[in-house]
Amino acid sequence: MSFKDKVVLVTGGSRGIGRAIVTEFVENDATVIINYNSSEEKALALKEELLAKNKAGKIYTVKANVSDPDRVKELFAHIKEEIGQLDILVNNAGITRDKFLVLMNDTNWNDVIQTNLNSVYYCSKAALNLLAKNKRGTIINMSSTSALHPNAGQTNYAATKAAIIAFTKALAKEVAKSGITVNAIAPGFIETEMTSLTNEKIKAAWMDSIPMKRFGAPEEIAKTALFLASDGARYITGQHIVVDGGLTS
Fold it and tell me: What Pfam families has UniProt attached to this entry (predicted)?
C-alpha cells in the first residue's frame, strides 16, 4: 500500500515501537514527522538511515515534550506552518515507573499519567483541526495488554493504558462524522529496549505465558498501525486491536 501525499506524526518515534512505526510509514511513501523529547541523536540517526534507503522520502525530526501542553501547541504550530498538513497521528510516547503502590510516590504516579495519558489528550485535541480540514484522518493510540491484564507493580501504567482505550472509544464517536477514525493498539510483550533490560528469569516466565512462545517484534505493531491508517480500515473505529501472541485469549 502507498501513503504518498500523506503526512504522519509519530510521538516517541525515535526508538522501540515508535521507530518501527516511523520506518514502516516511510517505506510506504509517507511524509513522516519523528517526534522525540530526549533522544535527539537516535532521531537524527534514524532519519539519516531511512533517507539513505528512501532517497525520495520526506522526514522531519521535531523535539517536543508531548507531556507539556505548551510544547504540544508549539509542535502543532510548527507542523501547520512548515508542512501545512497532517493526516495520521500516532500517539506512541510512553514511559514506565513500575513500583508496588505502597512504595510509589506522587512523582512516579504523575509522570506516567502525564506522559502516557495526558499527552494523548493534548496531541489528539491539537490534531483535530488539521485532520478535520481534510474531512478524513486517522488517530492511533498506543495502549497495552496491561490495560486488560495488568501486572502487579503497574497501577500507574495500567491505569493510563486502560484510560487510553476508553478515550479512544469516546473520541471515535465524537469525530466519526468528520471522517476521522480513532483506534488503539494493545501490544503484549514486545522485544524492545525496555524489555531487553528485564531479568532473564522474568522474561522466561513471561514467554511461558504466551501461547506462541515468543515475544512480538516492533515491526508487527508497526504493520498493525499501517493497516489501521489504510483505506482497508476506513470502517473500523473506536476499537482496540490486541497484538499479543494469544496472551489474553
Answer: adh_short_C2
One-letter amino acid for residue 90 of the chain? V
Would the pTM count as exceeding 0.85? yes
Q: Please report the pLDDT score of residue 54 as a whole number.
A: 83
CATH number at residue 61: 3.40.50.720
Asked, for residue 32, whether it belongs to a domain, the answer is: yes
On whether 12 is known to bind a ligand per the annotation, the reply is: yes
Is 138 flagged in the annotation as binding? no
Query: What tens digit of pLDDT does each residue of 101-143 get?
Result: 999 999 999 999 999 999 999 999 999 999 998 899 999 999 9
The Cα 161–Cα 228 span in angstroms is 19
Active-site residue, selected from the candidate residues 36, 122, 157, 235: 157
In this structure, what C-alpha cell is assigned to residue 230? 489504510
8-37 pLDDT tens trace: 999 999 999 999 999 999 999 999 999 999
Active site residue 60: no
Q: Which domain holds residue 45?
A: 7-243
According to DSSP, residue 183 is labeled E
pLDDT at 176 over 80: yes
**Number of domains making up the chain:** 1
Q: Cβ(248)–Cβ(149) under 8 Å?
A: yes
List the one residue out of 95, 58, 53 whose CA is nearest residue 79. Answer: 58
Phi, psi for 186 (deg, rounded to 5): -115, 90
Binding site annotation covers 161?
yes
